Amino acid sequence: xxxxxxxxxxxxxxxxxxxxxxxxxxxxxxxxxxxxxxxxxxxxxxxxxxxxxxxxxxxxxxxxxxxxxxxxxxxxxxxxxxxxxxxxxxxxxxxxxxxxxxxxxxxxxxxxxxxxxxxxxxxxxxxxxxxxxxxxxxxxxxxxxxxxxxxxxxxxxxxxxxxxxxxxxxxxxxxxxxxxxxxxxxxxxxxxxxxxxxxxxxxxxxxxxxxxxxxxxxxxxxxxxxxxxxxxxxxxxxxxxxxxxxxxxxxxxxxxxxxxxxxxxxxxxxxxxxxxxxxxxxxxxxxxxxxxxxxxxxxxxxxxxxxxxxxxxxxxxxxxxxxxxxxxxxxxxxxxxxxxxxxxxxxxxxxxxxxxxxxxxxxxxxxxxxxxxxxxxxxxxxxxxxxxxxxxxxxxxxxxxxxxxxxxxxxxxxxxxxxxxxxxxxxxxxxxxxxxxxxxxxxxxxxxxxxxxxxxxxxxxxxxxxxxxxxxxxxxxxxxxxxxxxxxxxxxxxxxxxxxxxxxxxxxxxxxxxxxxxxxxxxxxxxxxxxxxxxxxxxxxxxxxxxxxxxxxxxxxxxxxxxxxxxxxxxxxxxxxxxxxxxxxxxxxxxxxxxxxxxxxxxxxxxxxxxxxxxxxxxxxxxxxxxxxxxxxxxxxxxxxxxxxxxxxxxxxxxxxxxxxxxxxxxxxxxxxxxxxxxxxxxxxxxxxxxxxxxxxxxxxxxxxxxxxxxxxxxxxxxxxxxxxxxxxxxxxxxxxxxxxxxxxxxxxxxxxxxxxxxxxxxxxxxxxxxxxxxxxxxxxxxxxxxxxxxxxxxxxxxxxxxxxxxxxxxxxxxxxxxxxxxxxxxxxxxxxxxxxxxxxxxxxxxxxxxxxxxxxxxxxxxxxxxxxxxxxxxxxxxxxxxxxxxxxxxxxxxxxxxxxxxxxxxxxxxxxxxxxxxxxxxxxxxxxxxxxxxxxxxxxxxxxxxxxxxxxxxxxxxxxxxxxxxxxxxxxxxxxxxxxxxxxxxxxxxxxxxxxxxxxxxxxxxxxxxxxxxxxxxxxxxxxxxxxxxxxxxxxxxxxxxxxxxxxxxxxxxxxxxxxxxxxxxx
Length: 1068
Description:
By secondary structure, this protein is an alpha+beta fold. It has a 6-stranded antiparallel beta sheet. The protein has a 5-stranded parallel beta sheet with strand order 9-23-24-4-25, with helices on both faces. Strands 1-19-18-17 form a 4-stranded antiparallel beta sheet, with no helix packed on it. A hairpin with a 3-residue loop joins strand 17 (595-597) and strand 18 (601-607). Helix 6 (190-286) packs antiparallel against helix 20 (834-849), helix 8 (381-443) packs across helix 9 and helix 22 (962-977) runs parallel beside helix 23. It is flat. 24% of the residues are buried. Keywords: ATP-binding, Chromosome, Coiled coil, Nucleotide-binding, Nucleus, Telomere. Residues 37-1024 form the RecF/RecN/SMC N-terminal domain.
């Protein structure tokens, strides 16, 4: 549940309320205002099994002790008339208003209505939190009920009409604007609040239109300014365009002028070329005889040149053959040198072979001498055997030690792995504590900052200082965290706990005063309550489903646990399961149980100070937010002990391994000494055998060398024969070489004679060429001139074609199309020479370039903006017309709203002031606003003065006391009473904070005002009344009783009670 709901201890409790006899009701029905409550029936609703209430048409005083069910009637009125649970400020679910232990309940309210009363029936189901509605016995729905209630001017959400106990304090907190709206709804005509809403909407729309018109005007002014600036740009654009048109015409004419100029150059080039051709022909005829003689000489020289070339090839061939023979002779000479080198190598090898034979014989003699000496030494075999025995013993000892070391290493690895595992578990627990700290920092940063300060300054404190409880409390099972967290408020969960009070004062001075941190601190009780015993043993409560006390569900340091046991009795709060929930009616009857928990709920059991009966309230147990992160403190301590044991064990193992290592070192040293001695003895024993083997090997090597001795005589004989064969080959090669030399010399002489004949012919040819060289120079220059002129003519022809084509292309003419007449006329107005055209083009370009940053878009933008300005002017006119219309509507609505409102507020002020004046106080009500045009800022201002030496002060939630606010609220509601259009008004326990004088005065005013025939129905709920109050006949007193022996409503008979009372009185 979201909030506690009062419940009776006994399921047989009844509440009966009776106002008058049925006949009296018939007589009084004519005074009921339409919409007044005629009857309220409640079944299985909050504290009631069944109750029927018949209120009167005027003032209804509902009186009863706390917890008897007065406010239950208020709840029934609200929920029965389709009000929301939020209005009551209690449970947020309608199912919570059904009596505990029941699955459903209902409310039935009968409202007075001309032509037939209206009965509203609401049946509430706990299981699905749903309601079923009926109107006059016919099924209906909540929306239809709300419409019927609204038609009777009933507003249970309006604090000026319906003021439940939990909302009394909110009335004084209402702003002036909220109070005005509530007053309009309560006592104003229906159209008043509608006009007010319309005015607020009209004003918002007017403000929007004003802003829109202002924006449009501003935008239009800026647009016009930009339009004027653009007009100058448009004129400049057209001026530039005129210059560009002239440039275009000049560019069109220029190719035609160039074409005409080039065509004239072509005609001149043709004439000059023809003259050069004639001159070239005359020169060629004068050179013909000498050229013929030169040609004859060339013909005679051709056979001679051929013979010279043939002889040159033959000479070259003979030279190549001579070179080949020379190369062969060089090869034979090299072959002879190689053969002599082989002989030298064989001679050196023979010398080396003789040296090796001599050395081998000498080595054999030395080895035989040494062998003779070794044969005289004693046998070392027994010594070697003794060393082998000792070595085996050392090896066995080392193997034993290595086995022990391996076992210790395995044990060390296992202990180290166990230590790492324990370290990981401890780290996981530390991470969980860090997660708790992160939650604390996210929820209350100041407390986290103070925690960091404490950890850095623990030396400042003499006693134990514990970090915030939420970090020190360790819930044994995450499922239990929600009970602990529900039982201990968060303000204490984030509190620091101190063993000494002086430490707490030091801490608060440093943290709160100096660091300006908002933190809570607690001083633990001087006497320890941590081990206090519960009132009942848990075994005696197991039959109800209880399985543990709250203290047993978590661990905490002694000072923290002592505070929790002393302050929150955690050692005496049992926790149960679903069985406890099922047996809750029996459980709450048990003595000593003040607070208990079921699986999902917390129950608080109190004894009423009036009736001495048990009052039970319950609320939902919310899920845990902070303590669900649990760390097993005993487990952590055990892990730390195991960790220390592992460290000690690792140290012991390392010491033992080091001792074994020392033993191994000693054994290795002795083993090395024995091996060295064994090696020496083995060398002595094997030296004789080695010498014999060496002698045998050397003798075999000597025999092999003697068998392979080199014969130098045979080698020299073979070398000489090979050199003689090579020399004979050299003789034949030399003869062939000399023959080729002679042939080359003969051919060279013949070539020289032919060259002399050729030189004579060439001399004659040179003389002829020299004679005609002068005429040839003139002929050549003339020929070159003809070629240049021909190229010039071709170039000019192509240039003319290109210029003609370009001119037609620029003027967009077809190839066979001539220049149009209009274009010729335009060309005639322009210069006719290229220089003049270029000068005019430069001038026009310069003028056009003066108009920079202009394009055709300037004209488009100018025309577009001109159209936009026209559209803006039309929109502005429409907006201005709409604004005038709205202002007219506002003026009409304001006249219909403000004048009646001022009259209404004045009437309220008169009544309110009279009431205060009758109490020797002062008070006034006025319509307050800072700007008459801001209709959403209008409000009702209440100003009061309770003391003669003070001034009028506005009613606020802070300036006046609680009793003064209650008096003001009550008198304001009474001022509305006679003006009220609502059929009834409900005020619940508003006199609780008043002093007796003000309470008596207010009561007299309520009686006088609410008992007039012109006023509507009024419900005044109070748990007490002063003595000797003035009552009126129009009042209806409803006494609410509660208990297990109450009569059912249908058995209540006031007349019988009066008769019995009179009878007892007369008998006495």
